[in-house]
Amino acid sequence: MKLTLVAYSTPREAYDELIPAFQKTPAGAGVTFDQSYGASGEQSRAVDSGLAADVVTFSLEPDMARLVKSNKVDANWNADPYHGMVTDSVVVLAVRKGNPKHITGWDDLVKDGVEVITPNPFTSGGARWNVLAAYGAQIKQGKTPEQAVDYLRKLFKNVSVQDKSAREELQTFASGKGDVMIAYENEAITAQQKNVELDYVVPEQTILIENPIAVTTTSAHLDKAKAFVDFLRSPEAQRIFARKGYRPVLKDVLAEARFPTPPGLFTIADLGGWSEVNARFFAPDKGIMADVERGIGVNIEPS
Questions:
Q1: Which residues pair with residue 215 across a beta bridge?
Q2: What confidence tens digit (pLDDT) does each residue in 203-228 have?
Q3: Is residue 43 assigned to a domain?
Q4: pLDDT of residue 301
Q5: 67 in Cβ contact with 16 (< 8 Å)
Q6: How far apart are CA 150 and CA 154, in angstroms?
Q7: Minimal CA–CA distance to 268: which of 202, 215, 212?
Q8: DSSP letters for 220-231
Q9: Looking at residues 264-279, what average pLDDT do you find?
């Protein structure tokens, strides 16, 4: 039997190891997979529009909420000890090898002559995390909300490329474009594992990225799909995720992995939660980022 996994763009390398590991377990014996990877928002919309999926995993919770609204994912998808999440990460600043521009934190990204790469927040979940990390870092530094929004305006004036997904962003940066790439920590680690010439800085103030996973209500193989999701939260699978740069949701495995904890780490809940944040920042008609993007002449795609 075959399961279809529909995922956001960055965990492809992790699933290259996770799927064979699952297939070696009694629950995974005889299970094959179709896999689809892309920008988180686009993947969510595709499933919403009829793309077949047994398991969906996205960059952020609102992309799962879209499928709950259309009854493609059960409303209780996050009623588990992990609140529906399968991995965590943080937003980091990837820089050229040796950090020639001496990037140490968010303030350096708005300096003259610093070229920044980050995806389009109206297609990419990673881009939304990047925006919120930048904004929330200003609040953590004692700035007012108005000053934090002004920071976003200055930041995006230095952004030269906005790709559709975090993986496309990495390809752009690896090709030599930009001085700084705002990115998932795991994506920077993946790049280093692929011998991309970059270093990365974990800012003192940054956001905890939480990546959701769920079985679809339309799956014809619910038991196997659930078994796969259960496996992904096993110590074995979480260690594979950790080797690929993801922060495990299992506390014991996270402790083993020894990821650095930034002193100013904050969460989406600290910013009011996704419902409030989505309306305030990412509404395509009157959200903060719609205004920022229009101010620099960027086309706004559907959220």
A1: 55
A2: 999 999 999 999 999 999 999 999 99
A3: yes
A4: 58
A5: no
A6: 6
A7: 212
A8: S-HHHHHHHHHH
A9: 96
Confidence category of residue 300, pLDDT binned at 50, 70, 90: confident
Q: Based on the domain organization, do 29 and 114 belong to the same domain?
A: no
Q: How far apart are CA 162 and CA 173, in angstroms?
A: 11
Q: List the structure tokens of 175.
A: 């090709």
Q: Measure the N-to-C terminal CA separation of the chain; round to a whole number of Å.
A: 34
The packing angle between helices 125-140 and 166-174, to 10°, is 80
Give tens-digit pLDDT for 73-93: 999 999 999 999 999 999 999
Based on the domain organization, do 49 and 96 belong to the same domain? no
* CA atoms 165, 168, 174, 179: torsion sign: negative
Question: What digits encode the pLDDT tens for the residues 248-259?
Answer: 999 999 999 999
Could you give the CA distance from residue 172 to residue 82 in angstroms, rounded to a whole number? 34
Residue 246 within any structural domain of the chain: yes
Question: In whole angstroms, how far apart are CA 7 and each of 28, 84, 299?
Answer: 19, 15, 25
Inside any domain, residue 301:
no
User: Is 280 exposed, middle or buried (CB count within 10 Å of its CB: 0-12, 13-18, 19+)?
Assistant: middle
Predicted local distance difference test score (pLDDT) of residue 302: 52
